[in-house]
Write a structure and sequence with these properties.
This protein is an alpha/beta fold. The chain is built from six helices and eight strands, in the order βαβββαβααββαβα. The site of flavin mononucleotide (FMN) has 23 residues, from α1, β3, β7 and α5.
């Protein structure tokens, strides 16, 4: 089964998750930044995983655009969707629901909540300020949920 993993990532967390997933799906798997995938490029793949991260409550616009452009084709493939975010529980659920169209969520085989990280080295001044002020975090911290990544892989492979 040919697998394509496309991601949008601001500070590297969703990218690292995409790379982890690609190791699990092995040969025939491609990983791409979502901005570099043209409309027709997805035709060859049977399984497509789409991931992004949440900033100020929203997933990247590029994720929305990619899905909007390719929705009809995506609904014919095996789909996995994931987000990286620091919220948990109901708040993370809401962020996930807002990130992807209902139709695609219902069609998806696996839905991934991979946690997230605050990576101060990759943030600009304003982002650092926001994180310190709102999340009350002053240094880099990781809350990546490795088990959720493993569960996601197993569900996709079933
Ligand atoms: C400026 C800023 C705003 C954020 N806003 C949210 C948010 O609204 N909800 C949330 O769950 N996480 C939020 N986060 C946490 C990110 O989702 C988390 O850092 C994630 O790992 C980023 O993934 P990326 O490195 O792939 O961009 C925010 C992080 C930053 C730096």
């Amino acid at each position: 089964m040919k697998t394509l993993i496309v991601y949008a990532s601001k500070h590297g967390c969703a990218k690292k998750a995409a790379e982890k997933l690609s190791e699990a799906f092995g040969e025939g798997t491609e990983v791409n930044d979502i901005r570099s995938i043209a409309k027709n490029d997805i035709a060859d793949f049977d399984r497509i995983i789409i991931g992004g991260s949440i900033h100020a409550g929203r997933i990247q616009k590029d994720v929305k655009k990619f899905i909007q452009k390719n929705l009809a084709q995506l609904l014919e493939k095996q789909i996995g969707l994931y987000i990286c975010c620091m919220e948990e529980g109901e708040s993370a659920d809401k962020e996930f629901t807002n990130a992807f169209p209902k139709q695609l969520i219902e069609h998806a085989v696996a839905k991934g909540f991979f946690g997230g990280e605050f990576n101060f080295e990759n943030m600009n001044f304003i982002e650092r300020f926001i994180v310190k002020k709102i999340a009350k975090v002053t240094e880099s911290v990781s809350n990546v949920k490795e088990n959720n990544i493993i569960d996601f892989i197993n569900t996709m492979k079933k």
